[in-house]
Design goal:
Umud Fragment, subunit A, 434 Repressor (Amino-terminal Domain), 7-stranded antiparallel sheet
Length: 208
Amino acid sequence: MASKDIKEIFAENFKQYREKSDKTTSELAEALGVAQSTISDWENAKKMPRAGALEKISEYFKINKSDLLLDKNENIAEGKSEIAMLPIVAKISCGNGVVAYENIEGYVATPREWLNGGEYIYVRAKGDSMINARIMDGDLLLIRRQEEVENGEIAAVLVDDEALLKRVYKTENALILQSENPHYPPIVLDENYNVRIIGKLKRNVIEY
């Protein structure tokens, strides 16, 4: 059985959620602020929604974005593990307290067994600041969305408009971001910085 591409998977799930909500294409188009033809293109697997539209859809149906990208027809009975198609996010922004994903590089077929509830994304490591944690430039990193982590855990942290991957330590008055390379000093962030924890590192996916 040939595997479906991400547009086909999304189209099937999107249509199922629309029909389950008992909305017409015109009603859903109005609710999402798009043209009715856009809804049709999504349901016919002609186009994929951009990151902002995908966020609106998941919020409207009150589901995780990964629920729209999981091929629910692939199962163990067919000799395949369930998979979720998760985005590789090149840029993360935060406006009005809402985290948004921008510049989606693509989607990665991810074994469902790697996921334990919640929302997940991929980011790519940049530079050599985490080499002693065996995280190299360009590595594909699976991040679980959560706003709190334990001291010493590695997390993706949004500082102003830059996403950093560091070990996180909290003090009473500051957040300390520690690299895993002695050439980089700790980054100390007090209340004067716009900082937000995006999520916890769950897995480094080595690509060959």
